[in-house]
Amino acid sequence: SQQGEEDPQALSIQEGENATMNCSYKTSINNLQWYRQNSGRGLVHLILIRSNEREKHSGRLRVTLDTSKKSSSLLITASRAADTASYFCATENNYGQNFVFGPGTRLSVLP
Amino acid sequence: DAGVIQSPRHEVTEMGQEVTLRCKPISGHDYLFWYRQTMMRGLELLIYFNNNVPIDDSGMPEDRFSAKMPNASFSTLKIQPSEPRDSAVYFCASSFSAAPLHFGNGTRLTVT
């Protein structure tokens, strides 16, 4: 089983709408990372949130972390067609299963 | 910064042949990772190194796969002999002091 798993598997929205995707994990963590992958390219790091942080912002991205529920969410506000990509989470911890990615969320932003 | 450099970008080979994929990490990074991505299995961690030493190779599918990191600026992933089911995109990533990871653009391997 995966340490980090994203949901939903796929999400389709209109340009300008907000997109929210979630990540659940199983063990306590040191940090959680979100990445984006455009078709045919490598993953690109978006945000890292540490276990003692609850929320972090970067431009139109907002990440929250709830360690009691072992979950994180990534919110993309005012989405653009260029945000169309797959989004992945990964965790780092002291128990193994580090740097393991889930199946990702495929986001489609329709113009 | 040139980023993580992988070569070749595409590799087409016949079943049974040896395949060598190459990776040059970002200078100064002390972690290096190899991943494999397919539609069916998603993104799989094969192996990762810290300071050129393999730390976790539990994802290496079988003995046909081997990875080396002879120095801080170069790593190889070798498949011998290759099989059609090895067809995938192979990614190399590097990082400084673990996360976050910086990925190369991958090598698309096709084994016929």
List the helices and strands and how they pair.
The complex is a heterodimer of chains A (111) and B (112).
Chain A lengths: L3 E4 L2 E5 L4 E7 L5 E7 L5 E8 L4 E4 L2 E6 L4 E6 L8 E8 L12 E6 L1
Parallel strand pairs in A: 2-10
Antiparallel strand pairs in A: 1-3, 3-8, 4-5, 4-9, 6-7, 7-8, 9-10
Chain B lengths: L4 E3 L2 E4 L5 E6 L6 E8 L3 E9 L2 E4 L8 E7 L2 E6 L8 E8 L6 E2 L3 E5 L1
Parallel strand pairs in B: 2-11
Antiparallel strand pairs in B: 1-3, 3-8, 4-5, 4-9, 5-6, 7-8, 9-10, 9-11
Instruction: Find the biggest chain interface.
Output: A-B, 20 and 19 residues
Quote the average pLDDT of chain B: 95
Indicate the percent of residues in helices of chain B: under 10%
Shape of chain B: globular
Mean pLDDT across every amino acid position of chain A = 92
Summarize the structure in words.
The complex is a heterodimer of chains A (111) and B (112). Chain A contains no helices and 10 strands. With 111 residues, chain A is an all-beta fold. Chain B is mainly β and 112 residues long. Chain B has strands at 5-7, 10-13, 19-24, 31-38, 42-50, 53-56, 65-71, 74-79, 88-95, 102-103, 107-111. In chain B, strands 2, 4, 5, 6, 9, 10 and 11 form a 7-stranded mixed beta sheet that branches. In chain B, strands 1-3-8-7 form a 4-stranded antiparallel beta sheet, with no helix packed on it. In chain B, a hairpin with a 6-residue loop joins strand 9 (88-95) and strand 10. Chain B is globular and about 40 Å long. Chain B starts with a strand and ends with a strand. Classes of the chains: A mainly beta (111), B mainly beta (112).
